[in-house]
Amino acid sequence: MLRRFYVDNFKTLLNVEWIPSALNLLIGANNAGKTSLCSALMFLARTSQGPIKDAAVFAGEGWQLHNVYLDKPTVDLECEVKLIVDDQAYVFHYALSLKVVPVTPGSAFATTYVLQSETLWVTPPDGERVALILNDQGNVTLLHEGRHFRGMQGETRVETHAPQDTTMLFRLYDLQTNRLANAFKKYLGSWTYYSLNPFSMRGPAPAQPANWTLNVNGDNLASVLFMLNSISQRDQRVIVDLTREIEPKLDYIGFMPAQEQVLMWLADADGHTFSPFGISDGTLRFLGMAYVIISTARAVRNLNAPPPLVVIEEPENGIYVGMLRRLFDLIDHSGASGQYVFTTHSPYVIDLFDTMLDGVRVCMRRDTHSEIKQLNPERITDLLRKMSLGDLHYREMLG
Fold first, then answer.
1. Distance separating alpha carbons of residues 48 and 137, to the nearest angstrom
2. What is the DSSP pairing of strand 88-102 with strand 74-85?
3. Distance CA 201, CA 222 (A)
4. d(CA 24, CA 309)
5. What pLDDT digit, counting tens, does each position of 333-385 carry?
6. CA-CA distance, 115 to 122, in Å (whole number)?
7. Which of 8, 164, 218, 230 is most buried, by the most CB atoms less than 10 A from its CB?
8. What is the Cβ-side half-sphere exposure of residue 318, based on CA atoms within 13 angstroms?
9. Taking Cα atoms as reference points, which of 155, 6, 194, 215 lies closest to residue 95?
10. DSSP bridge pairs for 118
């Protein structure tokens, strides 16, 4: 579970520390920093899975991740994570510093980012903190975990060199010599981000038997639902029953694999069929979010995967807010099936968090940066006696 996230000089975020709960909500006006925080989380996750430049493109800014108002040569990110590995609890601390490098001197439109430093530390149960990865501008020291933790004789450190266009975490081989480092890498790579687009969700999806993850915009919804149906009709039934609250006639979701694609169709109890183009945007987005929540819990339960971080932007789009409570009720609020981060502009979604104030953060726009504030529970609880949490946000009384 993610216990702490720190970011500095990333888009609008300057010296921001975030202590997440199991269920989190980011609120605030437009351009206040909600998406910047989500992008920073996913950027860090993507650096463990590929080149830094690809992670930057995924974050939406391939050429300008840094804050243009701050004269600082690096972008810095850190996280603290608690993971269960082989039935034991380990605390990991990872820090990544990227150097801002203008490709064309004096031009803000031609910037790249290279690794300045990278460290991964772990604190084992009943043990002292030890460095798993030390990376200084490509000069790398790795811990031989087997020898170190078993007290074996011989050299426990390995010196190597790595290009600065990727993290060393990404370059790790999946070996027992780096068992804990790879467990952390796997966890970081499990973080997912969704901004679901109903237009993309309606069409046929490429058949991807090895991919269970819904894409960012949901355009492979037909494919992932088809795979889920093939191995767990029970979970598929749960998704259908939930979605029926929005689409009462829905009784069945069918599939037609064709030419390496999967087409999805829907049917009512009388056998009448209709295509995804005949249902509302809200129904499709609800269907996609239900899949995300149920498939995430299933992976944790059946595949022994660590509970991931899941980011969903503006879940209320096209959906009657009362229906969202059913989705939120599916989430284990202890975080055992995953941590969730939602962004919203809806006062009615905000109202759903009036008993989960520790997970609410208010993002506020300043002249040169964003400020992210935690609520004062005592003060807000007193105000809630007079008006709802959503009304407090609308009246700008939460900041």
1. 17
2. antiparallel
3. 8
4. 10
5. 899 999 999 999 999 999 999 999 999 999 999 988 999 999 988 899 999 99
6. 21
7. 218
8. 18
9. 6
10. 96, 135
Identify the residue whose tokens are 């804990």: 180
Cβ proximity of 24 and 359 under 8 Å: yes
Residue 71 burial (CB count, 10 A): 8
pLDDT at 322: 83
34-48: b (≥16 Cβ within 10 Å) or e: bbbbbbbbbbbbbbb
* CB crowding 233-243: b at 16 or more within 10 Å, else e: eebbeebbebb
d(CA 393, CA 399): 8
Q: What is the Cα–Cα distance from 291 to 75, expressed in whole angstroms? A: 34
Q: Give the tokens for residue 188.
A: 């970081």
Q: pLDDT for 265-320, tens place per residue?
A: 999 989 899 888 888 899 999 999 999 999 999 989 887 788 999 999 999 998 88
Q: What token pair was written down for 108?
A: 């803000």
Where does residue 215 fall: left (phi above 0), alpha (psi -120 to 50 degrees), or beta otherwise? beta
For 100, the token pair is 């801002």
What is the distance between the alpha carbons of residues 316 and 345, in angstroms, rounded to a whole number? 9
Tokens found for residue 216: 């960012």
Q: Which residues share a beta bridge with 103?
A: none
Q: Which amino acid is at 34?
A: K
pLDDT at 291: 95
CA–CA dist 253, 267 (Å, integer): 6
Query: Residue 110: what pLDDT?
Result: 67
37-93 residue pLDDT tens: 999 999 999 999 999 999 998 877 666 888 888 889 999 999 999 999 988 999 999
The CA distances from residue 363 to 155, 270, 372, 396, in Å, are 48, 49, 4, 11
Query: Domains along the chain?
Result: 2-190+306-394 (3.40.50), 198-286 (no CATH)
CA torsion, ordered 286, 274, 225, 348, to nearest 10 deg: 0
Give 15's DSSP letter.
S
